[in-house]
């Protein structure tokens, strides 16, 4: 069964600190992996996308990595800000938008 | 551009009532879809459409109907609401040109069925 597992389930960090969120998947055949940010009460917004051949992709303070051999991805947030408080969802695609497998997300809280 | 607009934002229904969740997008996206989001679970696909007049079932279609008469609109109908349909519903659209185009989500409708 295609699955996407994220860890930790929740995380609290101090403003200015770095953090790394993990995503492990068993989806096959793999097409691409995308990270979304979901603010409370809002819909998810795409942060990065990586295909099979890409190892790293950055979007400002967000850096995603992908190891297709071990089927693992991580999202690293540098110098966290209060506005980074949100849920981060890992989504793996089988090739079409109708064949997406969503992780349950990591809820990040950034505090003063 | 407004993006993807969902209405209403909140709704409370009694068991057996019917209602329609509205979704509209102004990005001329061919692909539109409905998801439900429940605590502790990933987003699950209910129905999707790859163009006007074309719809198909997703992972959890039972109890829901859709239609796509225009490119812009993709309403989701609950014919006879059940407490198990209490959830947050998201509409999403994407372009079908280019590889891996991102989904653009609305801000959701929080539905409670009592």
Question: Overview of this structure, please?
Answer:
- The complex is a heterodimer of chains A (112) and B (114).
- Chain A is mainly β and 112 residues long.
- In chain A, 0% of the residues lie in helices and 56% in strands.
- Chain B is mostly beta strands and 114 residues long.
- Chain B is built from no helices and eleven strands.
- In chain B, the strands form two sheets. In chain B, strands 2, 4, 5, 6, 9, 10 and 11 form a seven-stranded mixed β-sheet that branches. A four-stranded antiparallel β-sheet of chain B has the order 1-3-8-7, with no helix packed on it.
- In chain B, a hairpin with a 2-residue loop joins strand 5 (44-51) and strand 6 (54-57).
- Chain B is globular, with a radius of gyration of 13 Å.
- The mean pLDDT of chain B is 95.
- Chain A binds chain B through residues 4, 31-32, 34, 41-46, 49, 51, 89, 93, 97-98, 100-105, and chain B through 4, 31, 33, 40-45, 48, 56, 58, 90, 92, 94, 99-103, 105-108.
Please describe the structure with a list of short key phrases separated by commas or semicolons.
heterodimer; A: 112 residues; five-stranded antiparallel beta sheet; 56% strand; B: mainly beta; seven-stranded mixed beta sheet
């Amino acid at each position: 069964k295609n699955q996407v597992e994220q860890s930790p389930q929740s995380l609290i960090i101090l403003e200015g600190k770095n953090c790394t969120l993990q995503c492990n998947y068993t989806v096959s055949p793999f097409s691409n992996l995308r990270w979304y940010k979901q603010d409370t009460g809002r819909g998810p917004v795409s942060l990065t996308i990586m295909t099979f051949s890409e190892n790293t992709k950055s979007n400002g303070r967000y850096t995603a990595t992908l190891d297709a051999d071990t089927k693992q991805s991580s999202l690293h947030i540098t110098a966290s800000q209060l506005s980074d408080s949100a849920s981060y969802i890992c989504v793996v695609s089988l090739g079409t938008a109708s064949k997406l497998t969503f992780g349950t997300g990591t809820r990040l809280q950034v505090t003063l | 551009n407004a993006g993807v607009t969902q209405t209403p934002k909140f709704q409370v229904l009694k068991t057996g009532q019917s209602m329609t969740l509205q979704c509209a997008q102004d990005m001329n996206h061919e692909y539109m879809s409905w998801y439900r989001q429940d605590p502790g679970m990933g987003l699950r696909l209910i129905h999707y459409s790859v163009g006007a007049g074309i719809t198909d079932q997703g992972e959890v279609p039972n109890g829901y109907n859709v239609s796509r008469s225009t490119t812009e609109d993709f309403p989701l109908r609950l014919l006879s609401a059940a407490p198990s349909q209490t959830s947050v519903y998201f509409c999403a659209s994407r372009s079908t040109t280019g590889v891996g185009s991102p989904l653009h989500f609305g801000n959701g409708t929080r539905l409670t069925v009592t």
